[in-house]
Design brief:
about 425 residues; mainly alpha; Ammonium transporter fold; 2 strands
Amino acid sequence: MGRKLNFIVLAVLVIISLSFASNYPELSSSIDKGDTAWMLVASAFVLLMTPGLSFFYGGMINKKNIISTMLQSFVALGVISVLWVVFGFSLAFGESFGGIIGNPLSYFNFKGVGSEPNADFAETIPFLLFALFQLKFAIITPALITGSMAGRIRFRSYILFMVLFSIFIYCPLAHMTWHPEGLFRNWGVLDFAGGTVVHMSAGFAALAGAVFLGKRSDSTIRNANVPYVILGTGLLWFGWFGFNAGSALGANEDAVIAFANTNIASATAMLTWIFYERMLDRKMSAVGACIGAVVGLVAITPAAGFVNIGQSMFIGFAASIVSNWAIHFQNKSDIDDTLDVFPSHGIGGITGMLLTAVFASGVGLIYGETSTFMYHLLALLITGLLAFFGSLALYKFVDVLLTMRVRPDQEERGLDISQHGEQA
């Protein structure tokens, strides 16, 4: 079964590559060079976040699972890039079917995705650049999920799940939130850079994965390399400027506001985390500081272009406290979310999404507007149900085909050796 599947994958890649022979982007002189330059840089920033995530997760896991954990993030660069070009971008941004999903044939194999701007999405940059920028978001989302299942998931099974998750969960959420005819967007739901689409979907999918796979045989965590965690956090923080400020889709005022809010929210969350830990008579740890910083980045993501500096500080503060509570509560439960993905990204994303509806300029709750907040609650409910139960169904489907969890002896030896034949 495994060899046949590998052969099929290679054959599909060959067929796809041959189909691009006549698909060249057209030339255009109508683009804004400043916006295009910034978006090229921002796209590269966001891509760097996935290797950063691999260091962040790899440093926190046990030594025998470092390579496996890092590769689970890194391989998304390859898998999702190909999927996105073939029909993933079409599902997310193609002709809308009821505001839920795009037509997979709209931009099949990037047909029609060239250097001419598409006014429906970004008026001043090549449509191809917009598609590539959005690709980086699609890459990191399934990579985020892996932290909850680290140390016990089969690599091939994870790749299949990643593909299915992107098709049936990520792309519909991206379409509903960011497409001009998307359901959430038409409700007035605000998600500047992916709090709903990326972090909440990954958080709920991670929770479903932890529930489905069950506990590890040894559920203790011995951080393999704390400097890796610090390095990964630095790369994530750096890349997040592209993630949030790049979502302004140009070198403009919104990009500057998002850039500033991103930095101050993360800084506030990091400081809140370590001083709150000390207040509880715990050590001010490096790992804690890093988790706090990432939680702040997660929480400000949906609000980055809609709030001011003071509000972004409050969002970072609130998310840090709430996620800290969530981690300690989860650790007392039977849920084995290995690297606390749901408390960090799920709860952090929920906090940021709701506070976006509270503070968003002109339409937030503090301005007397209630409809935005109510629609955010409804979108939260839909996103949570789709991401959790949809992912649970996908885990079960993949498990029937390939088996999701490694054997007990493979888990004992470690996934680096049993899945990849390598050692850190």
